Every structure is written in structure tokens, then in C-alpha cells.
Amino acid sequence: MTFRPLRLLLCIALLVGLITNIKASKSSSLSITDNDIRDCPSVQQLSSLKLAMEEGESPVMRKIFAWLFPFGPAWNSVLGTFYISSVPNFILAFIPAQINGDTLNTMTAFATGGLLSDVFLHLVPHSFMGEHQESGAHFVMVEEKRNILVGLGIFLGFAAFFFMEKSLRVLGGGEEDSHSHGGHSHSHSVIETSVAETTGMSVSSSSSSQSQLKSRNKSAADSSNAKAIQSTPSSTVNASSKLSAYLNLFGDFVHNITDGLAMAASFYASPLIGATTTLACFAHEIPHEIADYSILIRSGFTKKQAMQSQFVTAIGAFVGTFIGIAVRNAASSSSSSEEMEGLDLAAGIRQDANGLLGTTLLLADLVIPFVAGGFLYIGAVAVLPTLLADSKSGKQALREFAAMFFGVLCMFLVAWNE
């Protein structure tokens, strides 16, 4: 009699397990793609409404971008790299060797506004929500695990640029005369540094030596020490400045590679992302090239040598662009069959999709978040402290505020009127 309840419980457990397996098999066989969502009647009606609205508009920026970038994503990324690499270097021919620090700070503030607005208005939204090139309405399924990986990609870009700058500072001996972010050095103390290099001593050391000479009653020992200080050869200072200049050129080359990767990734994402990233990089490259140009001049380079060095480092941008194109083509060829069938949304919910850690996020989708993290580091960590360090005049601060907000406004209008 005691065995009957046990048998009954065992049969119930087997029945429950069988039902669970049947439900699991049904859920594992469920496949709903984004193409199925696009074919829904409600989505088709919204797409028709959006197409009708777009036909009545004539976006000016879309026509301008179509004229500036008339090719496919690969050639458009090469063309965008040419824009951001050649034009700022040609501008150097009209820049004097000694540029006003306030002018350079104002240009840097404008570039920072454009760069950060490109991050928050274009790159970060695209990283999470995507940017569709097809016409009509589009819907995105919220996938929590995918969003975590996207956020991790943004942090990896931020950390990679920190590692790059930290390594360059260690190699350069921790010099504080330039603020280098992956090769992008913004040094605005042109007059003080040039005086220190030509005399062989710093401003503080010269003032201290003068006070010592006044306090002592013209002793022979002090006069000989003063002569020794003034006659100190500047070869060691010139050697260290040369080393910092070459390290700056190397860092500039490495950072230009990341710019090229950003060009390729943005144009393969969408024409709008590519065009706005080109504008942001272009606005940032002009003050950056001028700052690097002034560093090379102070390090003993002639104007011709400085311009030639800047053109050589610009090759890194094309190297990064071609690497990005090759990676994107390899990724697209491997996932071409999946793109034809559509993205399996049910697999993303079950976390058994073909992407990273069972999500629908592919490795190529992390390039834009990586670029966003890098640009965020450049604008917020590497450039803004230089503007805060040179806070001497209220009028100059107002000019920098206005320049920064003007950069944000330009990027906002570009995105809004696309």
C-alpha cells in the first residue's frame, strides 16, 4: 500500500518533465526575425506614413552629404579620411610658427563641442538603437544583455585611449608641457616654453637666481654661478624636446589609425553617421594639427620639416581606414546568410543567438561604441583640462563657452535637418 503513493508521485514528475520538454522544444523552434516585424500591417502603415512625409521634404544636408560622399561606404570612408587628413595640413601653410594661445583655445573649445556632440547625438544613440539605411519605419527590440555589452564597448574605447595616453606619457618621461591624448597634444604655453628652451632654464629658476643675486652683495662665487647658469648649453633641453616631438609624432600616427577606423565604421553604419563623424573629426583636427605644428617648431623643426612630418602621420588615418574596411568586409561575408534571412529576435531572448555571449550583438557592432568611448575620452578628459588650466580671463572664458556651444549647435542642426 505504501508503494502506490510513491508510484503516483513518480508518474506525475515524469508527466511534468515531459510537458516541460515539449514546451522547451516548441520555444527553441520559435523563430521571429526583424523581417517578420517589418511585414506586420501596422508597421507597414507607419512606413507608408513616413515615406509620404519624406517625399514632401527636401533635406538640405542630405543633398550636401550626397554631393560630398557620392560613393559606397568603402570609398566614402576613404574620401572622408582624405578630407580630415589633407585639408587641416594644407591650412598649416598659412599658420605662423607662433600662434596666439587664446586663439588656439577658442578653436579647441569649438572642436570639443563638435566632438562631444557627435558622441552624444550620433554615436551613442546609434550604438544602442542602430541606424537603418532603408526607408520606412523601423522598430528595435530592447535586449538587456546586448545593451550591457554595448556599454562595455564604450568603456573599452575610453580605457584604450587612457592606456594609450598613459603609455606615451611614461615613454616621454612624464613631461608636463604638453597634454597628449593618444598623440593629440594641445600645448598652448608657446611663449613660456620657447623662453625656457632658448635660455636653458625655466621661468621660476631664472626668477629665483635673480633674487639670490640681489640678496648677496655681488660676491665672486655668486657671479660665477650666475654665469655658469646662463652659459649652460641647451643641448640637453633640445634633445629632450626632440624626443618629446618624435614621441608626439608617433602618438599622432597611432591616433590617426583610430580616426581611420572611425571613418570606416561610421560610413558602414550609415551615411549620416559617416558624414557627422567626418565633420567632428575635421573640426577637431584643425586645432590639433596647429598645436602639433607649434610643438615641432619649438623642438627645432623648420616649417617645411614640420609640415612634412604632419603629412607622414596622416598616412596612419588611411591605414586605419583600410583596416576597418577589411574587417567590415570579412564580417559581412561571414554573416551574409544571416542578414538575408533576417535577425532572429527569438534567439536573442533565449540567449542562444550567434552573437557575443548568446546575444544578437556581433563583433563588428562594437566598433561604433569603441569609437564613441575614444571620442568621449578625447573631448572630456584630454582636451577640457587644458581649457580649464588656462582660465585667466573672463572674456576668454566667454569666447570659449560661445565656441563650444556653437560647435554643439552645428552638429545638432546637421542631425536635425538630415
TrEMBL record:
<keyword id="KW-0732">Signal</keyword>
<keyword id="KW-0472">Membrane</keyword>
<dbReference type="GO" id="GO:0016020">
    <property type="term" value="C:membrane"/>
</dbReference>
<feature type="region of interest" description="Disordered">
    <location>
        <begin position="201"/>
        <end position="232"/>
    </location>
</feature>
<protein>
    <submittedName>
        <fullName>ZIP-like iron-zinc transporter</fullName>
    </submittedName>
</protein>
<feature type="transmembrane region" description="Helical">
    <location>
        <begin position="401"/>
        <end position="417"/>
    </location>
</feature>
<feature type="transmembrane region" description="Helical">
    <location>
        <begin position="311"/>
        <end position="331"/>
    </location>
</feature>
<feature type="transmembrane region" description="Helical">
    <location>
        <begin position="366"/>
        <end position="389"/>
    </location>
</feature>
<dbReference type="GO" id="GO:0005385">
    <property type="term" value="F:zinc ion transmembrane transporter activity"/>
</dbReference>
<feature type="compositionally biased region" description="Low complexity">
    <location>
        <begin position="202"/>
        <end position="228"/>
    </location>
</feature>
<feature type="signal peptide">
    <location>
        <begin position="1"/>
        <end position="24"/>
    </location>
</feature>
<feature type="transmembrane region" description="Helical">
    <location>
        <begin position="74"/>
        <end position="95"/>
    </location>
</feature>
<keyword id="KW-0812">Transmembrane</keyword>
<dbReference type="InterPro" id="IPR003689">
    <property type="entry name" value="ZIP"/>
</dbReference>
<feature type="transmembrane region" description="Helical">
    <location>
        <begin position="148"/>
        <end position="164"/>
    </location>
</feature>
<dbReference type="Pfam" id="PF02535">
    <property type="entry name" value="Zip"/>
</dbReference>
<keyword id="KW-1133">Transmembrane helix</keyword>
<dbReference type="GO" id="GO:0006882">
    <property type="term" value="P:intracellular zinc ion homeostasis"/>
</dbReference>
